Amino acid sequence: MNNAMESLYQVVLDRKTNPAEGSYTCYLFEQGIDKILKKCGEECAEVIIAAKNGKNEDTENEICDLLYHLTVLMAAQDIPLSAVMDILEERGRKIGNLKQFKKTDRNT
Fold this sequence. Notes:
Blueprint: H1 2-17, H2 24-31, H3 33-53, H4 56-76, H5 81-93
Helix pairs in contact: 1-4, 3-4
């Protein structure tokens, strides 16, 4: 996964610094952060709907769409992919990191 995410991130960064006519990524950068955030929200909702419908192939595709838009968001805000990967790696090393739930959280 790391290689695929790194490749995607590099393409997105390239589009940010070297806009290409007709590029959807460039369109998102041109529209700005509000458009990028709107697309992240839409894709998140589509992941939820696909998962709820129990169609793994649809869910996988929607997760990819969400990851793409999150990558655009990272590039737009100058967040290096390595920073996110480092945090994920650190979290993966934690053992017994379940958080205590409040009574209201148990119902959701």
